Structures are given as C-alpha cells and as structure tokens.
Amino acid sequence: MAQETTQEPPSAPTAPARALLPFILPAVVVGVAASLVFVGVSAAAERLQGVLWGPLPDALGVGRFCVLWMCVMLTATGIAVGLVVWKVPGHAGPDPATLGLNAPVLPPAVLPGLLLATGLMLAGGPSLGPENPIIAVNVGLAAWLGGRFLPRTPGALWPVLAEAATIGALFGTPVAAALVISEALAGRPMRGRLWDNLFAPLTAGACGAMTTTLVAHPTFDLGLPPMGHPHARDVLAALVIAPAAAALGMGAVYAFPYVHGALRRLRHPMLMLPAGGLLLGALAAAGGELTLFKGLSEMGQLARAPEGRSAGGFATLAVVKLAALLVAASCGFRGGRIFPAVFVGTALGLAAHALVPAVHPAVGVAAGVLGMLLAITRQGWVSLFTAAVLVVSPAVLALLCVASLPAWLLVTGRPQMQLREDGTPVR
C-alpha cells in the first residue's frame, strides 16, 4: 500500500536584490523630505504658539492661561482655521472626521491650505495632533512630485513611502512605520515575501526617523520610575486598566457621530469651527492649561510629578481631554487623534496609581495608553508600540501583550472614530 504524502504549499519566492535596489533612492528622498515637512510645520507652529501664549497676553496684561485668554484664543483659532477652510483654494482638504492614517492622494492645490490650517490648529491649542494632516500632505507631495520626476515608478508606491516616512518621522523610529505598513498589508494580496514588500517603506521610515532625530531630537520617554521584575499585582493591574481605558475610549467613539452631526448642522465653517473653539475654551476652563494642545509635552509634565495630584484630579484631566478631542475632531479642525489619546491614557494610568499606590506608575500609564489607543485608532501594533516606548521598560511589553487581549475584545467589530462621507461610522 503506497504511503500518502502531503505537500506543503510553496512559500512565496524572495525578490532578487536587483528588483529592490531601484526603490532605495526614491525611499530615501521621500523619507528625508517627509521628515523635513513635519519638522518645519511643527517648528513654525511652536514659534507661533510661543507668541500667542506668551508675549501677546503679557502685552495685553492678562494671564497666559487664564480662563478669558483660553476662551479667546481657542475661539480665535476656530475663526482663523474657518477662514482657511472657507476661502483658501481646496478648503484644506476633506472633512477630517472621514480621514485616518491612510490618507487619500489630494490634489497639489489643496496642500497649502491644509498645511496652514494644521499649523494654526497646533499653535492655537485645540486637542489634536499633527499626524493625519501631515501624512496627507506628504502623500500628496510624494504622488505629485514622484509622478513628474520618476514617471516609470509605480504610482501606488509613492503613498506607501510617504505614509511610512511620516510615521517614522512622527515617532522617531522606523519600527512604528513597519508595524503600521505590515498591519495594512495583512488584508491585501502580496507578491513575494513580507520583508520584500516592507523593504522600500522601511527604508523611507528609517530615513524619516533618522532625519527627525538628527534635526529635532524627539523623545517619548516620560521618565517614570523603572519597573523591575513583574509581579502578579502588575498583571492584574494591566488586565483591569487597559480594558477600562478602552471602555472609556469607546464612549467617545460612540458619541463621535452625534457630536459631529450636531456641529455639522451649522453647515458653514465660519460657524462650525468658532463654535467648536468656544466649546474647547469652556473645556479648558474646566480642565486647565494641561488639556490644551496635542498633549505630548503636557503629559510629560504630568509624569514628572505622579504624586502631585489626586486620583480625581488625574481622572478629571483624562475626561476633559477626551471631551476636547471629541469636539476638536468633530467641528473641522485639521489634526489627528493619536497624541491627545496618549495624554488621556497617561492621565488614566496615573489616576490608577494615585487611587491604588500598589499599581506601578509605568504599568498604569502603559496599560492606560494601550487601551485608549486601541479604542481610538483600532491600530493594534501602534497601540502596543506607543504604550511600550513611553515607559522604556522591557518587562512591561509582556504585560501589554496580555492586557491587549481583553481590551481588543471590547473594541473589535465595533464602530471606529472615523466616519464615512454620509456621517455613518466606519467599522
């Protein structure tokens, strides 16, 4: 009797080096250029922010972060961005509530207005980050310039390179770009091995990250006390905090289409954005100056003194910041949701530490950021990576992998914080 044999399916062939070498130069150019766009916009916004929230209120004889000035500045920012959306060609791109990290290729005429709206938003104080509009600008520039100067290069390559380069520049490491691109490739048919497909995007991400590191010296380490060998209480804390943060984030996700729809009834950007700015001013009055801006430097201030606030104080900051993120993303400000969501998760983690001192602050922060980002972004790898780099503790990574499981069960299959053009949530 003949013995039956089973044959394993052949693995995808690897691409020869000569097939990958032509992609190196375009990836390097896109990586460096994308980083310089990000650094340039961020630097210009920081200079304007320094004027608007420093010498200007001092010259007027009002407090830099008094309630009056915060309300005035946020409303004025809404007016300024509203003017850009109304009058500048391209109207600063599509409704930001319909965009995620995967940006569409926008026409070149749209990009100057989008850059201007983003810079004004970053300087004026709304609770959004630069990631979504900067990715959209770099994708548009790469597709336009690449198509003109290297017309033989596949057109689909430029958006992937620009996205990877910008993500590498934003996080200061190409690992984040590789994780995002690999997650996107998981749902698409691939030709060849995974690393062959990642070769050009990883090159662009590495060049973007290196350029940002050399020019701007970014860091995400919050300087929290280092965590030693994990204990059972650390596992329990991560298993509780991450799902709790995800549940709070899902509350904002479910409210998103309703808040967006209410503000969209105003119809005109000169009504929606100033109204949103006024609401943000009221929220800033409730939460204080730490709930302004994208939240990166502000969460560093929180982490430097984890014993300086009560659990209720940290929880108030988290709720106010999440509400500010919800309003800013709904009324038309051009910006992303990752950085303010990280602030919310950090505040929740520190609230858990203040409530139960046995919860290590590094575990609390990492688990809180993980759960919040899973709910807001639905990007598993980015959520794990961001939570891990904030605390720079290798021991916390295993805890995060365990804590991600119940948190993911809470968010998977449910609406995302992104809308279709008809206002219905993306699932």
Automatic annotation (TrEMBL):
Top-rank lineage group of the source organism: Bacteria
Presence of the UniProt keyword Membrane in the record: yes
Pfam families: Voltage_CLC (PF00654)
Transmembrane segments: 20-45, 66-86, 106-125, 132-150, 156-182, 194-216, 236-259, 271-293, 313-333, 354-376, 382-411
Membrane topology note: Multi-pass membrane protein
SUPFAM superfamilies, sorted: Clc chloride channel
Keywords: Membrane, Transmembrane, Transmembrane helix
Chief place of localization: membrane
Compartments (UniProt record): Membrane
Protein name: Ion channel protein
